[in-house]
Specification:
alpha+beta; Jelly Rolls; seven-stranded antiparallel sheet; 16 strands; globular
């Protein structure tokens, strides 16, 4: 019975360690961290300086988070990296919280930016319109009342500096890709991970603190030049919310997996992109070729249609087992896994060795000691 008890205890310890390792791998970047593009607690140095980052507008710093906007009307604030991103590929993991008193009415949302400009306040989720580069919007208020009850409407847009963001249509006819996510008023931190590698843009979210990523969109054939700036901004209007940033971690991304490479080939062959409208013009191509975005307005576009390939974030894995497999494949690829699993093996060997010593050496010695 003692042997079974020891083995059971050892297994419980191993299971707990495995869970901790899985969570740690999920929360940590897979590659080398770029400290000049990373922000974690404590945010301020002893000299009350926040290295490599600027906060503007109504943004304030606390010990536990950076609040871009309070739960008050007509506020806007931003957090901007002061160093341009010199690498051509990157991965950014952001922990955040969106919360407030409103139960049915709240807004407006926040945005992640990779743009030529920085530290600019404006009317597009707290930053300026006519930006040059990438924007990912987490829109919590629908001007068209078409996706408001679904939570945040998450969309990616690229602008070359000439396009007016269409607030009235929530940018739905300008986006490259989109999904919905119920990320507001959670008891825990929520997070997203955006990666850019091999000219492919991918966004994943974990809004349930499940230590598991779910894909929002996957867009190939995107050209983002280096030496742009990372930023996160937020805004409130007649409706409001707290928009908090807890941490930003930027790292070297892993290469595309074999499954992702197959997806890129399939999407390029079909001319489609995950989460986009049918017939959507290729915004990434336009930026790549330096052609004016104005020419795209010559063609009529659907704002909202039944055929829109929008990914429902909360159902994505149930509907597409391939996404679940790719997510597991991606999350298990971090280099820290090998070291941590090595610790598990050492613990297992130590446990077995302890059992052997107890049953084969110590007990026999004890028995011989009491024999007359």
């Amino acid at each position: 019975m003692e042997l079974r008890s020891i083995l059971a205890s050892t297994l419980l310890v191993l299971v707990a360690l495995a869970g901790a390792i899985s969570a740690q791998d999920h929360l940590q970047p897979a590659g080398a961290v770029y400290q000049e593009h990373t922000l974690t607690q404590p945010y301020l140095t002893s000299g009350l300086v926040m290295p490599f980052w600027d906060f503007i507008g109504h943004a304030v710093i606390s010990d536990e988070f950076i609040r871009l906007t309070p739960d008050r009307q007509s506020k806007r604030g931003g957090l901007w990296n002061s160093k341009p991103v010199s690498v051509s590929e990157w991965e950014v993991l952001v922990d955040f919280k969106v919360h407030g008193q409103g139960k049915n009415l709240y807004g407006d949302g926040f945005a992640f930016w990779y743009t030529k400009e920085k530290n600019m306040l404006g009317d597009v989720f707290g930053s300026k319109d006519h930006w040059t580069g990438l924007a990912i919007f987490f829109d919590t208020y629908s001007n068209q009342q078409l996706h408001h009850q679904e939570g945040a409407y998450v969309s990616a847009l690229i602008n070359d500096g000439t396009i007016d963001y269409d607030h009235d249509a929530d940018g739905t006819h300008q986006q490259m890709a989109s999904c919905t996510a119920k990320l507001r008023n959670k008891d825990h931190a929520t997070r997203f991970r955006v990666s850019y590698r091999s000219n492919t843009l991918k966004l994943e979210l974990d809004v349930e603190n499940a230590n598991e990523w779910t894909e929002c969109f996957f867009v190939p054939d995107v050209n983002l030049p280096p030496n742009y700036y990372f930023g996160i901004s937020a805004a409130t209007g007649d409706l409001a919310d707290n928009h908090d940033v807890i941490s930003v971690r930027t790292s070297d991304p892993p290469p595309l997996t074999e499954g992702e490479q197959d997806r890129v080939k399939a999407l390029e062959a079909s001319g489609e992109k995950m989460g986009t409208d049918d017939g959507q013009d290729k915004f990434a191509d336009a930026l790549k070729k330096k052609t004016p975005f104005a020419r795209f307005h010559e063609r009529a576009r659907r704002h909202i249609g039944e055929q829109r390939k929008r990914t429902d974030f909360n159902q994505a894995k149930k509907k597409d087992p391939v996404l679940a497999r790719l997510s597991r494949e991606r999350d298990s690829s971090g280099p820290s896994s090998f070291l941590l699993w090595g610790v598990l093996i050492v613990v297992l060997i130590a446990g077995i060795g302890g059992v052997y010593y107890k049953t084969q050496v110590y007990d026999k010695s004890k028995k011989q000691h009491f024999e007359f």
